Amino acid sequence: MKNPKTTSDAAALLNTKTSTRDTPSEQDAKHRANALRIALLFVSVVCGCKSQEDADLARRLHTQRLRTESQSTSDAIAPKDYPSNWLGTRTTTVAPGVHAFGDLQPSAAFAIESSEGVILIDTGLDENATRLRELFFSVQLRLEDVRYVLLTHAHYDHVFGANKVREVSNAIVCAGAEDYKVLSSADRFALFSLFPKTEFSGNPIRVDRQLHDGDVIESGDVTVRVIGCPGHTPGSMCYLVEKEGQRIMFAGDVIASLNFGPATYPVHISPRYRGNAVAYLETINRLLQMEPPDLLLTGHPRQQTRSESIRIDSKKWKELLEPAKQELQIAVDRQNSDGPDFLDGVPKQIEKGLYYFGELDGIAVYGLIRSDRFVVFNAPGGDRFADFLKAQCKTLQLDYRTPDMVLLTSNTETHSSGLKSLAGVSQVVTPQLPVTSAESSSTKIDLYEEDSKQFADLAIDSLSISHAGMPALAFRFSVEKKQVLVTPSVPRNIGLWWVTRRNGRTKQSFVEPQTSELKQELTASSQRVKDYLDSLQKLSEFRPDIWLPTLPRTGQNANVYDQQWSLTIDANRDAVTHLIDSTE
Ligand SMILES: [Zn+2]
After folding, report:
1. CA of residue 180 to ligand 1 center, whole Å
2. Which of 69, 148, 402, 461 is exposed most, by the fewest CB atoms within 10 A?
3. Ligand 1 center to 307 CA (angstroms)
4. What is the pTM of this model?
């Protein structure tokens, strides 16, 4: 991957340094001429009236000057004299010509000086790259000197500055081929994972070169080896650089910090956010088989709450990776036994006879075939509902027939308007009359205002709760010894949890958009808040193995493991309690 744009101009100028023997006065004159030329180029770069060639030349000359100026100091500082410990919040030169910008948050960026310009690893979340420019300046570099931008993966906090760096430097922006589409289409859902709290113009992130495992990038005297590490995202890459006898790895979020290790959270959320447990496990196994790097620079050193050694040996390497390996193995085993049942719009069989049909107008529809009867949960979409059901049944290779029974979690128009498209439904269960769209001479409407015993012969329990000033129903039944709970829009899937590997403590983060939606909905009245808390209390008594919510906003996994149900209830309580506190 040689730079194709080497100019004869630049080559001639650089050659004068070594190819001829000049008298001191001639050298002086040449230095002056070069200095003048550099100054002119800087002016043209700063003025924005540069050509690609001028930018390349200026970058190389500037880098050469810096390297010559720092020659005496870098001679004096051997690699072993560079800090082995790094408080991840600081900007530190961690090896000769290798700068770690820990002050950039939430994720770090790194600059590697080469004889042909700077290689920048990641670009932060600021689309103007303002702080990144300052940090470059603090180590006597300029964004204009960047020749290559190597993105570790397509998450907002690592890539948003890339366009600006490219604009000012003409740098070649590189990213994993599997992340290319998300970057170039500015896929908000995937870029933000579950944290869309940062302003974003929505501009595509321009990528000039798609990288694959095993690629090599050469920039003058620096060679970067590309290691494909899918799992956190499909196109996640680690970059390995050998500099003055040290192997330095830039790990992005594949190993997000020295105390946390690999950032495995995406494997627990929908593939829409592009995590993959099987791929991540393979990546970790591959890294474990590798010779560990001498220095490990991670994507989120700010997570390090204390100064950590960035020098890695086999023991430390294993300590970082083994716990994640075990965790991922559990996730893979669970997926193998229960299926990756993400409620992400793609119809699927959850268990034998239990189906997720996807969402219509934002309301999830589920199906159950039991005792030769076809039971459907929720009926949104008005006239389109029957066609929707037909299409989803076809995708699942189920023979379509009119449902025998429709169970409504709410009798509002949004949940029940599709009933009119179904001819011949014999039974509708609804929390409260009227469901006008269901009224016909042949339909029996069952009203459940009180908690019911099992109705019909289907062994389905209903649970009466109240939500947003309206009565609502949850339904509970078992399939293949698993407890299934179908809920109205309470509780919400608003939390994401991490277990801190070092101390086993669970940390929670609220996710969007459901947290904002919930707050907006409940702000309307204090009665709503009270209803919501009462409903949470009632639902907290269950511990479903499979949770089928009416609003599976961020493609959550239907399978509920460990403490997830009680954590979900608690997170909802926390959010609501916080809401009360902030309005009082
Ligand atoms: Zn990430």
Report:
1. 15
2. 69
3. 22
4. 0.81
